[in-house]
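Service request form, structural biology core

Requester: graduate student, group of Dr. S.
Request type: structure prediction, single chain
Budget code: on file
Notes: please return the result as C-alpha cells.

Sequence provided:
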Amino acid sequence: MSTKLRSILLAMGLVFVAAMALTGCREPGPAEEAGREIDEAVEDARDALDELGEDAEDALEEIEEEID
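Core staff response, request fulfilled:
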C-alpha cells in the first residue's frame, strides 16, 4: 500500500470519527435524560435535607433559650 493511499485512508478515517463524535453530541439520549433527572432529584433531596437541618438547629436554639 502506497504512502499516499495510506494518508488518504487515515484522513478519511479521522474525518469519519470526528463527524460521528459531533453528531453524537447533538441530541441527548434516554440515558442522558434519566441521568439529568436523577441529578435533579438528588439536588432537590440535598436541598431539602439542608433545610431540615437548619430547621432542627433553629428549634434546638429556641429550646436552649427557653431553658436558660
